[in-house]
Amino acid sequence: MRAPVAYAIALIAGGITLLGYFFSIPILDDLRTRMLGWAVILVGIATLVGSLNLVGVHWRKLTAKKGRDLYSLFFLVAFIVTLGSGLWLTPMDTNFQQVVTSIQLPVETSLLALLAITLTVACFRLPRRGRGWMGVIFIISVLVFLILDSGIIPLSGNSILSDASATIHRLPTAGARGILLGIALGSLTTGLRIFLGTDRPYSG
Amino acid sequence: MDNLIGLIIVLVSAGLIAIFTLLRRKIPGSDLRTIPAIQRLRRAVGLAVEDGKRLHVSLGRSNILSPTNASAFVGLASLERLAQLSRISDRPPLATSGDGVLSLLSQDTLRGAYRLGNSLEQYDPDRGRFSGPTPFSYIAGAMPVIAREQVSTTLLIGNFGPEAALFCDLAAQNQSFTLAASDSLPAQAVLYATAQEPLIGEEIFAVPAYLKAGAAQSASLRVQDILRWGLIAFLLFAFIIKLIEVLLGVKLL
């Protein structure tokens, strides 16, 4: 049996959490809250370990004998400066927050702008991807919602048009609900596989 | 009452998964419908192994404590299977994620896959990377992998945002095969337009079963189908009851 100790821990923790969800018993609620607190601490530590792993990867890229990646130097310098100032000033410091936001915001905004162009180009390329009639419906939907939401058509004075617009706007909600129900069922079976121990995303 | 119904659904589903898993082990063969995108993924994996190119699995940025974590677990199951399938490759698969726990789990999954295949010497923790904690930093950190690591096949499987389009665009520029599946609705919409092979809706949960990751994966897919039909029947029943109530003006339930 693969990773029996890890599975036993997962089974106990999962069982208590699941029972605490269905039955409101004080001791179960207390245990569930306590374990969720532990999980939050573990997530924080894992993020720190992941960040250190990322630093290690970039350090090895920078110091590699072949195919050295000089961009890693920017990452390492930015990481050390941000970590150092964050520890020194604390993340609550307004000056620290302002400096980080002033760097992060323009970078992410420019990526967002790039995303808008990428999506526009992708829509133009879609007919060549051979998606069949689903692709045609996708493009028509994109065009219909662009026109309806752009405000080109005056809907406020015309009851027929505004009713038609409201009906069209309800269609994606119906579709989304269908997809979300499917995803909920998939999530349930995935969780149960882990609970039953047939899926073990840990080697133990 | 709601809790009781929920508990019954969970218990029945768990029982069915266990039963179908045991039955599956005795009955060989597969009765899954064909998903061409996953067939092409299998072919792309084979070609990547033959050409000495790398597979890249992008696991998304789902927090393990969030309700979207199921897609991350599906990604990990797929990563394990792909690591097994490409064990003889010169360039072992690489996983990127946008969450610390997920990156640790991806490292552990790769280690487990190599250990099961008696090739633990192939394991390298650097192949399970945490590429960035925010949506854009995650994508920006994962994008150089395609360009620099000789990636020929990319599997995006997990929770993404619309920014995944940037990744798919770069993969297309590098002529890398891309199969993308997400549980997020905005991501599904953009991936439909940008990915070479997108999966829609709950098809994301079918990937490990189609990669033949194990009997339990196929069993859970079958249970998912049963639950879906049950849900459809319930929704139709509720609709008919409501229609009769409105037409006749009487309260039935």
Describe it.
The complex is a heterodimer of chains A (204) and B (253). With 204 residues, chain A is mainly alpha-helical. Chain A contains 6 helices and no strands. In chain A, helix 2 (26-63) packs across helix 3. Chain B is an alpha/beta fold and 253 residues long. Chain B folds into 2 domains: 1-30 and 214-253; 32-211, Rossmann fold, CATH 3.40.50. In chain B, 58% of the residues lie in helices and 13% in strands. Chain B is built from 9 helices and 6 strands; from the N terminus they run H-H-E-H-E-H-E-H-E-H-E-H-E-H-H. Chain B has a 6-stranded parallel sheet, sandwiched between helices. In chain B, helix 1 (2-26) packs across helix 9 (215-248), helix 3 (69-85) runs parallel beside helix 4 (100-116) and helix 5 packs parallel to helix 6 (164-173). Chain B is globular, with a radius of gyration of 20 Å. The two termini of chain B are 16 Å apart. Chains A and B meet through helix 2, helix 4 and helix 6 of A and helix 1, helix 3, helix 4, strand 3 and helix 5 of B.
What layout of secondary structure does this protein have?
The complex is a heterodimer of chains A (204) and B (253).
Chain A: H1 4-22, H2 26-63, H3 71-89, H4 94-125, H5 133-150, H6 159-196
Chain B: H1 2-26, H2 36-51, E1 54-60, H3 69-85, E2 94-97, H4 100-116, E3 128-130, H5 135-148, E4 151-159, H6 164-173, E5 177-182, H7 185-194, E6 197-199, H8 207-210, H9 215-248
Parallel strand pairs in B: 1-2, 1-4, 2-3, 4-5, 5-6
Helix pairs in contact in B: 1-9, 3-4, 5-6, 6-7
